[in-house]
Every structure is written in structure tokens, then in C-alpha cells.
Automatic annotation (TrEMBL):
This is NAD(P)H dehydrogenase. It is an enzyme of class 1 (oxidoreductase). Pfam families: Flavodoxin_2 (PF02525). SUPFAM superfamilies: Flavoproteins (SSF52218). Residues 8-193 form the Flavodoxin-like fold domain. GO terms for molecular function: NAD(P)H dehydrogenase (quinone) activity. The gene is ywrO_1. Belongs to the NAD(P)H dehydrogenase (quinone) family. Its EC number is 1.6.99.-. Keywords: Oxidoreductase. InterPro entries: Flavodoxin_fold, Flavoprotein-like_sf, NAD(P)H_dehydrogenase_qn. One of its GO terms (cellular component) is cytosol.
Amino acid sequence: MSTDETSRTLLVTAHPDPGSLTHYIAERLSTALRPGAVEAADLHQEGFDPRFTSADRRAYQEGGGHPPDVVREQQRLDWATDLVLVFPVYWWSVPALLKGWIDRVFVNGWAFEYAATGGVLPKLQRLTTHLLPIAGADAGAYERHGYEMALRTQLTHGLIDYVGSQRGATAFVHDSEQPSTGAAVDHAVRTLASAVGAPVSRS
């Protein structure tokens, strides 16, 4: 995250129902982050295509020439100092739409590159990434079965660390199918809003 007065947040959601808890939380967070600069990217509403095509494959191999919709998303991220992913947990992972967005956007030549001497050179050190997963199961189930660790491994180690982004905050909202999630939502919004506005240590 940025520690100066120019913080800019890209808030990404992946849910087909605009009346969903996912969108409600994203709207609450967007409001909490203002008057800072916030852009909301609703991947469903915008019709983002998550399919990794032969054109994406060529761009990945060559490190450039990305399709226009991918370039647009990369430009959004170039603008941002903070990225917040707000998503429902599907089968202990992110929705297919969000996974496709990650697959197509965080690619070789832009998010990272391969060093001539071997190894990977991350390129997104300027960005801080925060996670707000919305889970149907309770916190106890996530702890017993290692689901929270699995998500953190996928996203914190597998994406955020790989591209060199700074680790921001992670705030789960559990029991999302239950009628009384207000306290959990309030806590998640406060946690993420505070993290965007103040340094979070990498641990």
C-alpha cells in the first residue's frame, strides 16, 4: 500500500448477482475508502472474458502483445497503489471468473519476467494486495480442514509473493449463508480500510 497522500485503490469483485453479499461488502468498503481514489471493477458486469486463449498464450511466451482487454486491466493496476479482491469462496478457491482474470492479467512481461540467468524477476513491487474472501462455512471448519491456509497459499504465496506485490490485509467473512453477518462485515470493512490507509508489515 501507499503511505503517501496519493493512494489509489482498485476494488475487484467477481459475483453475478449485484444484490449479493459480495457486492454489498464491496460497496461498503468503497464508501469507507473515500475520499481516497477508488475504482470498482465488477468483472461480471463488465463482461470480462476469463478464457486463456491462444492469443494470451502467444503474449505469455513472447512477453508482450497482450489482447486489448488484458491491457486495459493492466493499466488499471498500473494506476493503483492498492488492489483489493472481494470474492465468494467457491470450492475453497476463487470463482472461475476471478481465476481467469488473474491468469490472463498477471502474466510474463508485465507482472514478472524470467531472468536470463534463471529464476523469476517480480515486477509489481509498487502494488499492495489485500484479500476479502466471503465464505459459507464457519471459521472453525476453515481451521480444522486447513481451508484458510489453502487459500492463503494459493493467493498470498502463489500470486502476491510471486509477482512481488506487498502483502496487505486478509479479512474473511465466515458464515455468509447465515442471516446475521453484520458484525463480521463491519470488522472486515474496518480491517481493509485501515490497511489501505496504514502500513502492513510483511511477515
